[in-house]
Amino acid sequence: MQFRKALTAATAAVAIIPIVVLAAFEWRNVVSEMDALEKRQRMTAERIAEAINARLSSALELMLLAASELPELASIEARDRTLSHIARAEPAFLNLHFDTPEGISRGFHPLLNPAGVPNNGVDHRGRRHWKERRTDAPYWISASFEATGAADERIVNIGAQARTRTGELAGFAVCALDLKKFAALAAEYENPGDAIWITDSKGGILYASRGLESAPISTFEALIPEESPTSPGPIPFQAAQGQKVLEGWFAQTGLSGDWRVMVAKPNALRQMELTGIILRSLLLILFVLGASGLAGMLARRPIEKALFKLQSQVAAARPEPLSCERIHSLAEFEALQNEFGLLMKRLSIARAEIESVNRHLADEVARQTKALRTQMEMLSRIFESLADGLLLLDQEGVIVWANHRAERLFAASASGKILGSAAGTLVAQCFRAGNKAPEPEAVLSGGTHRLQLKSASGEHFLDVTAFPIEGGDRFARGILIHDATDAARMETLKENLIGVVAHELKTPLAAIALSAETLTRRDAGWSEEFEDDLLQGMQREVGALQQLISDWLDVARIDGGTFIIQKRIVQLKPIILRAQKRVRALGPVQIRITIDPDAECVNVDPDRFLQLLTNLLSNSVRYRAQERECIIEVHAETKHSELLLSVSDNGIGIPEGEEKRIFDRFYQVNMGMRRRSGGTGLGLVISLAIVRAHGGTIEVASTPHVGSTFTVRIPY
Length: 716
Prior knowledge:
Protein name: histidine kinase
Main location: membrane
EC number: 2.7.13.3
Oligomer: single chain
Keywords: Kinase, Membrane, Phosphoprotein, Transferase, Transmembrane, Transmembrane helix, Two-component regulatory system
Membrane topology: Multi-pass membrane protein
């Protein structure tokens, strides 16, 4: 017992002296670190202020250069180029512009605002930079504010008077500075734990460290030494930020010295660091004292030696100890060593048996797993190669497997992934729009059902066949899904084609037959003028039949990929006049034609372009409003290397939601108007093919009962 106490006391005495010395050194290091912190904060404030001054001075010099150069430039384009060159010299410029004395922008960089609207020609008299302009000073700098117009963010303006060589005021050169560039200057010098603010002349925060934007400084007190109240460089200060008390340094910056850069650190952090050092020292002393007492209690050499030998044998897991590891002094430890040896021998035998069984089981599991994986991969490849969709359900009717074809069929209609959802819910969700859709229970009970699927990608018809799976643990039922959309559409097209043929062929053939029968009655004594009218009518009906056959042949060429064009440079107006002449026979119409000079000559296939214009104009005449005069406006211009051709009318318009369907075959806006308007429903199909063959696009905008506008864009 005396040995333990003496050992504990000696260990504690030896340990406490270095601890006290270490604590003293740590205290000295803390004081040194605090001094270094203040020095670093002072240098940070000074460097940020110098960087901001350099950036503002550079911007001001460039604005003064712009103010001296821009009045001597005669054109807006020359000013735009000059401003663009100046903008490259200073990354902080968001925009630069030259305003006339009347407040109108006559030079701008960039040319377009974020909304894509040109910046030149804008009245700036209501803008903040115009209201704050100064005529009594060569330049001015504004406080920060939220801008709108050419820049939609918080900015600072620098403006300068622009005078001619004779001293006459020619306008103002103004720039908007990107405050994020100044924030980046502060971020370069920011250190962990520091709080940094940059404020403008009105106290507006230009930059604040992360987490400080919503809690700005509420009080600010500069600690300027009395002996040097105007000493240059950063000055110490105290400030309150929320519930924190901050101490640090601030420096004045800006072109007028009215911007502030403040770098601080909460007092609480400094106190925490000092408290942490004291606590660490106390904990270290307590730990050493406890460890010394424990070491004294375990300081018996025989026990340590016996434990060391036993530990060596146990670590090596030896059944028999080495000669240097055998214990002789303590009987209890010697018996423990013998028991450990017997235990290790039994464990060795058991481990060998377990390893043998594990190897056998691992081989069998690997063989069975490989066979099962091979079968599953084969079945998966077979199911994935199916042209039809396949769903597999469990006992509860939940979808547990689906091939890619089934996922694609349901992806546009199902809300989310189909795996894990109930098959009945999926069927009800995807086919709820169909009035004739059977109940989900009937679909899943068996047999084949044709269902109508409506989704964002269009309308589909699916043949769904459900079948049971006998003897399956995981799979209880399967559903085979065949896409019958093409077959259903072919049936619809056949019905439409029969209807079109019955109407469009029957009417002209009946007229020709009646006219021929009338002419054969020689005893009637028809006048020559009457006979000529009948012959002309027959000729018109034959022409209509020829046009119908030509439309069908064009559709066949489109389907066969043989629809080609032959482009050449031609005048556009004669083509429009020929199309106008063709459609006048369809009814009374007033056609107004406007062509920009740049669009008078175009590179198109003249015959196909005439067919395109004839189709668009004839549609406007056919679907005119009966209660008002039919007026069609045709306008052509070039824009962004494209020919823009628009055909606008004041007709009945297109019903809302039908704009995409008007380019489908045999579709007419109002199928009930077929008798009055005529047509096969193929004109816009052919028009779309003509535009695409020219590498362009066609768009339609319509308002019901007001009119429609077709816009064709073709590369110029």
